[in-house]
UniProtKB/TrEMBL annotation:
All residue ranges annotated as the Major facilitator superfamily (MFS) profile domain in the record: 15-478
Name recorded for this polypeptide: MFS transporter
Main location: membrane
PROSITE patterns: MFS, SUGAR_TRANSPORT_1
Species annotation: Streptomyces albospinus
InterPro entries tied to this protein: EmrB-like (IPR004638), MFS (IPR011701), MFS_dom (IPR020846), MFS_trans_sf (IPR036259), Sugar_transporter_CS (IPR005829)
Length: 508
């Protein structure tokens, strides 16, 4: 059986630098704009009702088109898609930084989402087909997982520095040098195996149904905060998403060349990764959001100090991913890293649920951040690797897109769910304690903190559920244990001819 690993690219580690740089740009963009949003809103005269669209326009385009972007990478070539995504993302960022009105900014954000949906899955699938030897793959995905996990917090730091000392426009312009360097490196260094292409025609009905279904789902969750869970618009959008996505599954089970081959998500290990990672991101997005507001409004930190306060979490993620996850990935089964990782992260969040008005950063917030970082970094590394390990090379792009889709949808759900829980708890606390309040300002802060801690408790439970799913569903063996190219039972059922084209997989 021929293996990709027999044709090792001598420039693969240089390629990793540029792939990781592109991933960092995409991930940090998800949070860097949040810090700059108040300044941009004031400068461009955006109303309070429309300011959410600066975030939502990106999320809708990115989340809705990810599966399409993953299949385009498989059809068109990952390297070419990667370069086009980088160039397009840079142009969209330049338009956003130069925006003179609300419409131009929202259009630029949507365009960033479109090209991000090409860039993100092509980056991860390039990594999957470039590193196939077990130990090298563990190290490469350790670096990639650290960036994927810590990039959001880096965005908070960079966003604070750029907004406070320069201008909100630089949170867009900063993407341009990232994209130029990564695109230049891709042209000069990155190569992909020729046998990894998928020559099948594009599944147009699948593209339409998946895009509309995911857009409806993501948009429905963005409306929950303003309309409530039982509002007419969220319910209608959720119903539309259910019908569209069910129709998508039926179409994919019948067409000759599906957008998302069901074998990609039907295999229990990959399904476990997508589900547990999506749940974990629900908790993580809520944490970033609540603690950013807590540190700035309750504790009075500046944007820069707030960003720096997240540094221990970033350090923990990098340590957990590169020093714990990468070193143990070839020695223990993935579920023995993912489940404990999510559990440690849940313990860190449990610590952070104890915050109050005068909480000490060194005594409570710092250890909570460190535990969160170590746990998520340890879990992210095997998750990123396992999500694409064992798929056929021609399916690597769409399998990579599923990782990003689970995170994007998880982020949208987390923001809506935890925001709604926090808002309800805040209102209930303020109402219950209004009579005995010594001052309105103090009651406002106490109510806010109560809302945050209530939502964080929910996030603890969600992370614990992610740990249970990871431990229950993921049963693959460690990389390199036994026959390196053994296919899973589920994939083998798809046909022996397809199995011959697989990347070496983890053995059950």
């Amino acid at each position: 059986m021929p293996e990709t690993a027999n044709h090792v690219d001598p420039r693969r580690w240089k390629a990793l630098i540029f792939i990781a740089l592109a991933q960092l740009m995409v991930v940090l963009d998800a949070t860097i704009v949040n810090i700059a949003l108040p300044s941009a809103q004031t400068d461009l005269g955006i109303s309070d009702a429309n300011r959410q669209w600066v975030i939502t326009a990106y999320a809708l385009a990115f989340g809705g088109l990810l599966l399409f972007g993953g299949r385009v990478a498989d059809l068109w070539g990952r390297r070419r898609t990667f370069i086009v995504g980088l160039v397009g993302f840079a142009v969209a960022s330049a338009l956003g930084g130069a925006a003179v009105n609300e419409g131009m900014l929202l259009g630029a954000r949507a365009l960033q989402g479109v090209f991000g949906a090409l860039l993100a899955p092509s980056a991860l699938s390039l990594l999957a087909v470039t590193f196939t030897e077990a130990r090298e793959r563990a190290k490469a995905f350790g670096i990639f997982g650290a960036i994927a996990g810590g990039g959001g917090a880096v965005g908070l730091i960079l966003g604070g520095v750029l907004t406070e000392y320069m201008n909100w426009r630089w949170t867009f312009f900063v993407n341009i040098p990232f994209a130029v360097i990564a695109a230049t490196g891709a042209v000069l260094v990155i190569r992909e195996p020729a046998e990894g292409r998928n020559p099948s025609r594009l599944d147009v009905p699948g593209v339409i149904l998946a895009t509309l279904g995911l857009v409806s789902l993501v948009y429905g969750f963005t409306r929950v905060e303003s309309d409530g869970w039982l509002g007419n618009r969220p319910l209608a959008l959720f119903a539309a998403a259910a019908v569209l996505l069910l129709a998508f599954v039926l179409v994919e089970s019948r067409v000759k060349a599906p957008l998302l081959p069901l074998r990609v998500v039907a295999e229990r290990n990959r399904a476990g990764v997508y589900a547990s990672l999506g749940l974990a991101v629900i908790g993580m997005f809520g944490l970033f959001l609540f603690l950013t507001y807590y540190l700035q409004i309750v504790k009075g930190y500046t944007p820069v100090v707030t960003g720096l306060a997240f540094l221990p979490m970033v350090a923990g993620m990098i340590t957990g991913s590169t020093q714990i996850g990468a070193r143990l990935m070839t020695r223990v089964r993935p579920r023995y890293l993912m489940a404990p990782g999510f559990t440690v992260a849940a313990l860190g969040m449990l610590v952070l649920s104890q915050i109050d008005l005068d909480t000490s950063y060194p005594a409570l917030i710092l250890p909570g951040f460190v535990l969160m970082g170590l746990g998520m970094g340890t879990a992210f590394m095997p998750a990123m690797s396992l999500a694409t390990h064992g798929v056929q090379p021609r399916d690597a792009g769409v399998a990579s897109a599923m990782v990003n889709t689970s995170q994007q949808v998880g982020g949208a759900i987390g923001t809506a769910l935890l925001n709604t829980i926090a808002a309800s708890a805040t209102t209930a606390y303020a109402t219950a304690h209004a009579a005995g309040a010594r001052s309105a300002d103090l009651l406002k802060l106490q109510s806010m903190v109560h809302g945050y801690t209530t939502a964080i408790w929910w996030a603890v439970g969600i992370l614990a559920l992610a740990a249970v799913i990871a431990f229950t569903f993921i049963n693959t063996g460690r990389p390199g244990a036994g026959s390196p190219a053994a296919a899973s039972d589920e994939d083998a059922a798809a046909g022996a001819a397809e199995a011959d084209a697989q990347i070496p997989v983890m053995v059950h």
